[in-house]
Amino acid sequence: MSTERERKVDHSALRVNQxxxxxxxxxxxxxxxxxxxxxxxxxxxxxxxxxxxxxxxxIYQHLLRPAGLVxxxxxxxxxxxxxxxxxxxGVVVALAIVALLVEQTVLGWGLVWLVIALAAxxxxxxxxxxxxxxxxLGKLGLPGFRVSPIR
Length: 151
Prior knowledge:
Elements: E1 8-10, H1 11-31, H2 34-49, H3 55-64, E2 74-76, H4 79-101, H5 105-125, H6 129-139
Antiparallel strand pairs: 1-2
């Protein structure tokens, strides 16, 4: 039964976002292109700070969904944990860029691969590690982690 208070999230938009993060990050690694990795991190951070500006989700909303290439998958969910997960991933990519710029390539690309692995875990298995962390921090009573899992 639906209530007025239910909030919904289009998980297709999340999956498209994850697919772009994975694909472009792997391409950045293969090309050894720090700036492409930085672009992905910037998109993640901007999308976290101002969700309506999230480039990869906008590609879904304005190109892929209208063309019928990706169907919506709107479910009852909280957007905050997903936003936290993306922001955390963006911070990890930012740290990776710093490491790469100071020639700590193993650390830098290792951090990029960590983000790739966690995005793939969510895309292919439906487990959002960042969402899990968000809810655990909420259980600890930390300020800012106010929403509870939907049951």
